[in-house]
Write a structure and sequence with these properties.
The protein contains 2 helices and 3 strands. It has 79 residues and is an alpha+beta fold. Strands 1-2-3 form a 3-stranded antiparallel beta sheet, with no helix packed on it. Strand 1 and strand 2 form a beta hairpin. The model has no long low-confidence stretch (mean pLDDT 82).
């Protein structure tokens, strides 16, 4: 898996300051709809981490945002 940048300076700075990693959407597998939330749609998915000879499936939650450019600071506070 390759970690990258979001393409948004505010988000990339938040990721760096909080020790997080940006994972491109195409790395997620088995994406399934869960619910609607305040900022958008919530999904669950799996990512595969490769560590040496081993692969581990990690279950994650994804949020597809509505109007993130207008609500970015509120979203980052929620995170």
């Amino acid at each position: 898996m390759r970690f990258g940048k979001s393409g948004n300076a505010t988000i990339d700075d938040f990721i760096l300051k909080n020790g997080l990693k940006w994972i491109p959407y195409n790395e997620f597998k088995n994406v399934e709809y869960l619910s609607e939330g305040g900022f958008g749609t919530i999904y669950k998915a799996v990512i595969w981490l490769h560590v040496g000879e081993f692969e581990n499936a990690i279950h994650v939650i994804l949020k597809c945002h509505k109007n993130l450019s207008e609500n970015l600071n509120e979203f980052l506070k929620e995170v």
